[in-house]
Structures are given as C-alpha cells and as structure tokens.
Amino acid sequence: MSHNRDGHGDDAPSGPHPDQLACLPDDILLHIFEIVGRVSKSDLCHVSRLNKRFHVLADSLLYKTVHFDTPEHHLTFSQSLARRPRRGSLIVGVRLEYPESELSHLRLDAPVHGSHYAPSLFDGLSRAISTMSNLEMLDISVPDTLLHGIGTLFNGPFDLAYLKTCTLFYQCPDDQYWDLQENIHIFAHPTLETLIIKRAKLDHRGFDFIEQPHQTALKKLHLIECDINDDALSDILEFPEALKEFVMTQVPEPVPELVDSSDNIADYICALSSASHSLQSILIDFPSLSGFKALRMRDFVALKTLRVNWDYQLFGKSSKKPRMHSVGLPPELETLEFFNELGTDEGVTDLLLYAIQNKGVTARNLKTMIVVEGDEPSLSWELKEACKSQELELRIIGQLDEE
C-alpha cells in the first residue's frame, strides 16, 4: 500500500465523514423518512431533531395523519398549536376515537390558538380541528357530548376547505341512534367526496328550505345501520353533482327499533332518483325492507352494479292483481347480486326467470348474477339453463363444487 507524506494510506479519510443525506433532494428524503416513520415514529422524531431541513420534512410526515385515542392527547396537541401554529396546516388526516368515560373530567371550553370561534360557541376539542386548514380526512368516533360542537364545523363558512373524506359516528347511551340533524350541514360541504355515517337517525325534516346547498362534490355516500327517513334522504341527495356510489346497510333485527325508516325499498330507490344520471353502484343490504311493486329503474342510465337482499325487493311480492312480467332494470346494468336465498316466493321466481330469458330487452349488458345457495337447493334447473343460454355468468355463493 502506498503512503502519503503524513504516513497514512491513500484510502484513509482526510476529514469528517460527509453527510450523504444532505445531498439528496427533498422528494427522495421524504420517501426515506416515510419508510422510517412506518417502522418507528420515535425514530422519525429523532431524525427531525438533526437539523432544520430534516425537522421541516419529518414534521410534514409526523403530523400528516394524527390519531387521537384519548381526549387528553387531543387537548395537549391543541395547546401545542399555540406554540407551533404551522403544524395545524401540515395535518392531512385526523382520527378521533375515545369513549365517554374519558371526557367527564376534562374542561372543554378553553380557548384554542388560531381559531376565530368564541369559546362559548363550541368545545375546545372541536375548535382545534378548525385550525387544521389543509385537512382532507376526518374520522369521528367520539361520545355524543361532542355532537353539536363538531357539527358547528360544517355550518360554514367552511374552515375545512379541502376536506374530501369524512366518517361520522357518535357514541350514545344505551347504543341509541345519534341525531344527524345536528351535523346536517356536512351534506352541504363543497369539497367532500366520500361520506360514511354510522348509526344515525334523521326524521322527515332533512334540510330546511332556506338552508339548501347547491352542487356539492359528493361521490360516495354510505349509511351504516342508520334510521333514515326516505323523504329526508331525497332532500339531501338533490345537491351532489355526480353521486356515483350509494350504500345503505341495516341488521335483520335493528335495536333499537327503527322509527323513521320506510319499510319499502322502492321509497329509497325513489329518493335516489335525483342521482339517476350518475350513480354507478347501489348496495342496499337491508333485510327487513319489502317490495310491493316491481322497481322502476330505467332512468338509472349509468348504473352498472345493483346489490339487494331479496329477489322480491326487486320484483315485488306476489299479488292476486295482474301485473307486468318484468322489472324496470337499469339499461346498462352489468352485475346483479342477491345477498339472501332465492325462491321464497314462487311467483317472483317466475318473474326472475322471465327477466333472464329476455335479457336482451330487460338488461342487455347484464354479465354476472350472484346468488346464495340456501340449506335446500333454491335455484331451479330452468333458471340455471336460462343463465347459460343467455351467456350470463351465474355465481352461487356457498355451493359445493359439482363433479
């Protein structure tokens, strides 16, 4: 090995080890820091303390999505915004999830730095959210004590000007339904695209006339185990410019009993009619809904997927009165699914068979039908043959493979 004048090898370092990370552009560093944060948030915090540049980049990831699993954590962070208000604008997603028992000993009327709302208007926990100017995702699962305060956020003018996804669930005593009227203005939010509402109730009032919004960006609406009046639903669905996905689910025996919901699936299809030009997928998993007449869905010109519980929800239950032998299926329907066993109504089974045999007229683009096999075989040989002759793929959930 050759030596230099100082007697050291040529490959020996001549000075301090250079900071190789400092040479990388911000977008590469962000990618590296994101991987570090997935492994350990603590390690990413250590990285943020190395220098000012790393602090700014790491902070944008540390506070991108915040999960408040205790109200103490929520309040402590809210007060930290007074010292570092920039952090509020870094937050893109917030998840609030804590029980009623943890709220009882907290003072919620303290002022929050950066909020223009008076402390008397609503609680400090809600007010802190209003300072997060770039928030895109808000997931609420908190006691109904905060119902009014969070609802005030949606009354406008909108502090959450970039909100795209929101989930609302308020924990009520005895597992009662919470009143969606307190948060009704969420439906008027101009940028919101996905809204998921869990265990809420809404009576016939819906929007008052003077409050009605105009052309919102809502694309997906999910109502999970809710008690929703169909007229109110019709009101709040008049304003999305292009609703694409609607989901409504309920358990077979709701507790407490439903008060505001209709018992007729046709009422909810009618409520969706204002979005008939844009809806691409409808899922109504609501076993207690009945069908008294065949559904009229020819105006749902964009609908490609329809999922319901029973065949009679689509065709209407058998009646002594004469009626048409087909249902008004959406003209562009591609997938039809029934969550429950077919064949409980012989007259309806005949109508389903007729609709498949005349698929060229009733639903020329129908490609797939998904059904459930019960304890006893409920699919007739004629129905299976009709699907085969019409080149309609029949998927039977729960059926053993045939030899």
TrEMBL record:
InterPro entries from the xrefs?
F-box-like_dom_sf (IPR036047), F-box_dom (IPR001810), LRR_dom_sf (IPR032675)
Q: Report the domain of life of the source organism.
A: Eukaryota
Q: What CDD domains does the entry give?
A: F-box_SF (cd09917)
Residues of the F-box domain? 22-68
Name recorded for this polypeptide: Uu.00g048840.m01.CDS01
Species per Swiss-Prot/TrEMBL record = Anthostomella pinea
Q: What is the phylogenetic placement of the source species in the record?
A: Eukaryota, Fungi, Dikarya, Ascomycota, Pezizomycotina
